[in-house]
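One such given next:

>
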Amino acid sequence: MTSWIAFEPYKIKVRPDVRIIISREKGFCSGVQRAVSTAETVLQKSGVVAATDVLLHNAQEANRLREAGLRSVEELGEDELSSATILLPAHGSTQAERDARVTRAHAVIDLVCPIVEHAHTAAAELADTGLPVVIVGDRGHRETRYLMEAAGRHFLDIVSSPDDLPESREFPMLLGLIFQTTQSREFRTYVLSWMHNHRIEVVERFTLCPEVLRRQDCAACLVGRCTAVLVLGDASSAN
C-alpha cells in the first residue's frame, strides 16, 4: 500500500518500506525570509511596488511575489516611478543600480541580508588598508559583484573553484581574502591551504553565513545516513 507524506505545498507518494528523513535545517534563511516578509508587507500597504532585480534566487517564490503585484523598475513609467516604493535585492545592489532610476522613486527599501552586508563591510575595510583583495565566490553572482564593488580599486581577482588555483598561479605575497557568504567551509579550507602552501600571507575576515553552514552540515549528515538525498530548491541559488 502506498502512503502520502505532506510537504507543503506538495504531497509526496511514498512506498511503505521507504523511510524519509527531513533535515532540521530547511526553508529560507533569515535574510531571504526578511526580504520576502518585507515585500509582502509593502505590497499590502503601498500602491506601486517594484524591485531592481529578483529579490531572491527562487523562481517559484519570485513568480508568487510578482503575482501579488511586485513589478520590475524597468516596467515603470516616470509617473509611476515618482510614487513607487522600490525594493533592493537581498544579495546586495551595486552603486550604479542605486544611482539609476531608483533615485527618482518615492521610497527605497534596501533588503540586503545583514550577513551579506557584513561581508561587504569587511571587504571595504580590507581595501582601506591598501591590501589587494581576492573574492572567493561564484563568478557573476550578484553577491560576488557586490563584494567586488566594496573592494573598489583594490579588488584583485575572483576564485570560484580549484581550477582558479593552478600551481602556476601567482598572487602578491600579502593579500586580503573575503568569501561569498554561501561558500562551503571545505572550499575555504582548500583556498587557505593553497595560499599557505604557496607562502602567501592572508588577512581574512570570516564571512561565511552560519545558517548556510548549518544547512551544509545537515546535508552531510543525511548523506551519511541515507541511500539518496533530494535537495528541494532553485538551481540558481548559491545555497
